[in-house]
Amino acid sequence: MLSFSTLSSFGAPFKFLMIIIARSWVSVLGGLLISSMMSLMLNGETFGGILPILTVVFGIFAFVANLLRAYCQLKARGMAVVWLLISLIYLAYLHGACIIFVLSIASANFLLVKIFARTKYFSSVLWTFNLFFLMYNRIHEGYSFSTFGQHWAYLDHFRGTFRWHICFNFVILRMISFGYDFHWAHEDSHFDQKKHIQRCHICKAGKACYLHLQERSVQNDKFSFSIYLCYLVYAPLYIAGPIISFNAFASQLDMPQNNYSVRDVSWYGSRWLFSLFLMELMTHLFYYNAFAISGLWKQLSPMDVFIIGYGVLNFMWLKFFLMWRYFRLWSLICGIEAPENMPRCINNCYNLESFWKNWHASFNKWLVRYMYIPLGGSQRKLLNIWVIFTFVAVWHDLEWKLLSWAWLTCLFFVPEMILKSLANTFQAESAFGEFIFRELSAVAGAITITCLMVANLVGYVIGLSGINWFISRFLQKEGLPILGGMFITFYVGTKLMFHIDDAKKRRHQH
């Protein structure tokens, strides 16, 4: 058992080395608040606790679906019917009689899209309908059958094992995706396929990358009710995602993904198993969460508190990394490639933009395609982020703390965007000018990481009640050198990330 005396005996040099290893502690308070909803989605059970039964269920699903696809030579419509039947069995267990609510709202959305898709009122109707049910479902906690009449009250005893209105948040995103992809299918596409193929090494090799599948509109017959419902309730991605656009899903329902061979999928699964083993080691050998939850951090030094916070952050990252990759793995086995939700390690992000591109990345792609671009894109970036992050907060839950997080995140974003805009206009005319620019960028990255690290400590280790303790400890003689050393560490770490990015660019160029 790890004791306080053992922890304090490591000494300052070792502790400072630990902080150097933790160089790019980039976390936003809300980033983890948002992901904490995933734990709620497991209905009180840990992911590891239901992992064996999930594996058996998805193994059966994958075997049946792939066997029928191969034996009956099924294409989009046929596979849609197969996956729809399988997924409805899955939903019947999860939600019981509440599956009626899911199918009723989804059917109403389908009718609205078909009626208004070619009118100028389409966006207003689609967003009004989906935002209404997003908030109404939460307010009423998924409704009660008794409110529709006492003769329906007996159905309240068959509500399944999973709260349907929590999972329905993902269904909302899919309904909006279907609506816009159907709407844009009747307009001229701005996506230059030839130019994209020339630049994309995946498409150049004769395959189809996710961006190509998403931007290339599918044939009109793919926007049928059966394929639409199959997309909404597709079992491997239903509970937690990753989020996939309708175009990309329907394309792969017709022609299964070929970017990952059997060997690639096997290697992907092996890496997941190794990550699961790593999680088990962290759970049994490190006590970051115990220190954070119990409040024992108050008895530790400021350096120890930062190390604990770093451990909590990486534990959270690995936890959701495992969850998202597990569901994506089964989707790959079944022939559907979804975007990777954790494409980059959290310790290799030095600004807010890169953080959000690599934490729940599929949601980021969805926001860019269906909100950011329709709102005006980069031309109205300073305004768009307020709308987008407010939606992200409401999408997760109707709580003031989430709205506060969203608006604080926007305040973090504003200076970063202004600095990036200035940096883009700055043209280094000499080697010295480029050196100065790079140094200033590293300092800016260190400042951003430091601010976000403090926010994460307040949110997930010391809490709001510990702010006074934090200020009193770190503004004293013992705390100021730690803050200074931490800033220098983040500065060095940011420069190291610059070199990593440069190496990747050179590798792609060659």
From TrEMBL:
Keyword Ribonucleoprotein: no
Cell location: Membrane
Transmembrane segments: 12-34, 46-68, 80-106, 121-139, 160-180, 225-250, 271-293, 305-322, 440-462, 482-500
InterPro entries on file: MB_O-acyltransferase, MBOAT_fam
Entry superkingdom: Eukaryota
Keyword tags: Membrane, Transmembrane, Transmembrane helix
Topology versus the membrane: Multi-pass membrane protein
UniProt keyword annotation of Transmembrane helix present: yes
Main location: membrane
Stretches of the chain forming a coiled coil according to its record: none
PANTHER family per the UniProt record, alphabetical: ACYLTRANSFERASE, PROTEIN-CYSTEINE N-PALMITOYLTRANSFERASE RASP
Name assigned to this protein: Membrane-bound O-acyltransferase C24H6.01c
Organism: Vitis vinifera
